[in-house]
Amino acid sequence: MRLRRGFVVAGSVLWISGGLLAQAPVVGGQYQANSQQPEVKTVTRVEPRATRLTESAPQPLGYETNVYCFGYIGPPHEVFPYTIVSAESLIEQSDFTTSDLMYLDHGLDRGLKVGDEFWIVTEEDDVYHPKTNHYLGRFYRLRGRAVTLSVEERTATVRISSSCTDVPVLATLKPFEPIPIPLARKTPPAVAGDPPSGKATGYIVQAQDGVVCIGSDSVILVDMGADKGVQPGDFLTIFRYAAGREYGIRPVGAAWITKEPPPGMQVPRTYLGEIAVLFVGDRWAVGRVSDSYRLIEVGDQVELK
Q: Are 142 and 76 in contact (CB under 8 A)?
């Protein structure tokens, strides 16, 4: 008998192109496989563990420019070992910057050596307390750094290795000492209703470049330092009394007048932000505003956290 090409399914026999193949038996209207099915494994996806935010880990409190490009309060007319008296490009320039060569008033006669590194300093204005008008000292601005290239008997050549701003002739030099950026663990800042810490208090007395509206990342000077137990890495809470402890400022018509509050009147603190202390002097400290909630000004109070 000759088979026709094609296929016919009859019961459990399948005819294909003149041949036959065994067909799985029908059970309950479905075919049952003769061969063993592959094992199915359930794979549980493991989500990568989220990186934990290490808020409690020590973090740098500032940047190199915060400490190397600001300044400090010193005595009036501080004496410096060297003064810049001229420069290689004096005919073409009146102010100088990184990589420029400048000449000093002393050399081997003051023990200067090739490779010595210095702060470039200029004497600025006197600093007075914003509340008491008490004299605090003279502000000395750090304008950059310089390194000695060559030395002669009574002069030397220095190269400006790093400048924060323009460097004028007659700027002075003092030996460079690295200032490390402190590390500290940040804790939650004070909020409305928090009581005073009971620790040392002081005031913001100056802001970098004379900034009036102080905010986050501003660098400031306060009138409390090692004398009040302040150390690099500390935090200071910034606050003010909105109505003042002694008097309030109240509107009368279109004008503002001062009027003493009722006897015994007290108001809560208005918290303005926090300062991270970067380096400290005897009676002053330089810090960076790490948090600000509203406008901060010279004259606002600070408290050791």
A: no
